[in-house]
């Protein structure tokens, strides 16, 4: 099993930096606070237009033409429309399945957010709040969402698998990312008691989620678990015979490597990829099929400045005021990190690039030079991404 795919990030789960216009006229930094700062009518209009225009049938044609085989679709916990004030998006996922099946792509449904936050990131739905695993009724709610998704799509031809939860953070990453300071909570009282999830909790949750999903999911479809940013911690997990077709998802970004101390130089990136990504994936592939469910070409060297571990103008980091590198040099850097990373993912069972597109204006809005490398369409068009591999 080898999969080659791309994430449809910022479609059904919003990230402000990927689509800043959606947040205009508000101080909201995350999806939780957006509907709380807009009138119902404005919120509804913005979301409905965004969802209908951001990803369309044509995109599935383009993704297939790029040589991709699958899409990972982040969905929110309110996908079924049962958590006010949010608007559900199950119809959009239905459409995505129809498009995928029409054009020969498969879908990995990725539950990307949890109520009260599973990581404190903006992409977890609420900045600075990470208390989901401390709320048994919300853990149960997430399990019920997974169960309903499995029931609805389990036998669909286009289903590749279901990922039970995106990036539940554990201790090391919580400290490395300095979550409370990098993603300050808009309402500090909501964030009280926030902290990383324990591996013990995650192990228990994954086992419960597996049982609930497998009730409706044929054995040939995959159940995907995220490593919690601890790739090597899962060797003794789910070794029992009942667990079949479980895939381990790891997310590896060069900006995280920089945060760990990797020098912002091409040779240092290559060495890091070899010593960490490649070695660790090869090791873990003995226990699970391992996919890199999120990665990209973004790095500080190509940005021309230290992004301090991938922090942007939204985090108060200035960014480059002008291009420091010419187009050919940029292409050389990106091609090199693309080849090295794809070589690493090939030690495992494949990858999903983050992300298919973004609506950030990296030309007119100051400080965003280099951030176009998060957009697979642009990477392919510029020749940075080797679409033939």
Structure commentary:
It is built from 14 helices and eight strands. It is α/β, with parallel strands linked by helices and 389 residues long. It has a domain at 3-251: TIM Barrel (Alpha-Beta Barrel). An eight-stranded parallel β-sheet has the order 7-6-5-4-3-2-1-8, with helices on one face. Strand 3, helix 5 (136-153) and strand 4 form a beta-alpha-beta unit. The radius of gyration is 20 Å and the shape is globular. The two termini are 16 Å apart.
Q: What attributes characterize this protein structure?
A:
389 residues; alpha/beta; globular; 8-stranded parallel β-sheet; TIM Barrel
CATH superfamily (homologous) name of the domain at 3-251: Glycosidases
In the CATH hierarchy, what is the class of the domain at 3-251? Alpha Beta
The tally of strands reads 8
Kindly report the average pLDDT value: 96
Q: What ranges have pLDDT less than 50 throughout 5 or more consecutive residues?
A: none
Largest sheet: 8 strands, parallel
- Compressed to H and E, one letter per element, the order equals EHHHEHEHEHHHHEEHHEHHEH
Question: What structural class do helix, strand and pairing data support?
Answer: alpha/beta
The strand line-up of the biggest sheet is 7-6-5-4-3-2-1-8
Shape: globular
Outline of the structure:
With 389 residues, the protein is an alpha/beta fold. It contains 14 helices and 8 strands.
Tell me the layout of helices and strands.
Elements: E1 3-7, H1 34-37, H2 40-54, H3 57-65, E2 70-75, H4 90-102, E3 106-111, H5 136-153, E4 159-163, H6 171-177, H7 179-182, H8 188-191, H9 199-214, E5 222-226, E6 246-251, H10 254-259, H11 266-284, E7 290-294, H12 300-303, H13 327-345, E8 350-353, H14 376-381
Parallel strand pairs: 1-2, 1-8, 2-3, 3-4, 4-5, 5-6, 6-7
């Amino acid at each position: 099993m080898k999969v080659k795919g791309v994430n449809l990030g910022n479609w059904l789960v919003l990230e402000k930096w990927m689509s800043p216009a959606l947040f205009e006229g508000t101080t909201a930094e995350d999806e939780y606070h957006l509907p709380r700062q807009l009138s119902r009518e404005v919120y509804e209009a913005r979301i409905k237009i965004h969802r209908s225009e951001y990803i369309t049938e044509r995109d599935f044609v383009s993704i297939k033409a790029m040589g991709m085989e699958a899409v990972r679709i982040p969905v929110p916990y309110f996908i079924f429309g049962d958590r006010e004030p949010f608007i559900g998006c199950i119809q959009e996922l239905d459409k995505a399945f129809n498009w995928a099946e029409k054009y020969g792509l498969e879908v990995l449904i990725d539950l990307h957010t949890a109520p009260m936050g599973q990581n404190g990131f903006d992409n977890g739905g609420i900045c600075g709040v990470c208390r989901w695993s401390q709320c048994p009724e919300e853990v149960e709610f997430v399990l019920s969402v997974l169960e309903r998704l499995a029931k609805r799509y389990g036998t669909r031809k286009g289903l590749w698998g279901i990922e039970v939860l995106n990036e539940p953070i554990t201790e090391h990453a919580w400290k490395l990312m300095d979550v409370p300071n990098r993603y300050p909570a808009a309402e500090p009282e909501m964030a009280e008691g926030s902290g990383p999830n324990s591996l013990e909790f995650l192990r228990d949750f994954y086992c419960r989620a597996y049982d609930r999903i497998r009730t409706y999911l044929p054995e040939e479809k995959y159940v995907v678990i995220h490593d919690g940013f601890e790739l090597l911690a899962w060797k003794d997990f789910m070794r029992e015979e009942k667990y079949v077709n479980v895939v381990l998802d790891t997310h590896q970004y060069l900006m995280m490597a920089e945060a760990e101390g990797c020098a912002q130089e091409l040779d240092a990136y290559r060495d890091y990829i070899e010593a960490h990504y490649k070695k660790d994936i090869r090791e873990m592939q003995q226990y699970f099929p391992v996919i890199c469910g999120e990665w990209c070409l973004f790095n500080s060297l190509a940005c021309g400045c230290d992004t301090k571990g991938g922090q942007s103008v939204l985090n108060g980091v200035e960014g480059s005021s002008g291009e420091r590198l010419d187009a050919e040099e940029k292409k050389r850097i990106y091609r090199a990190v693309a080849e090295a990373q794809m070589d690493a993912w090939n030690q495992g069972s494949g990858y999903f690039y983050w992300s298919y597109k973004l609506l950030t204006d990296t030309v007119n809005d100051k400080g965003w030079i280099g951030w176009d490398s998060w957009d697979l369409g642009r990477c392919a068009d510029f020749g940075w991404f080797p679409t033939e591999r």
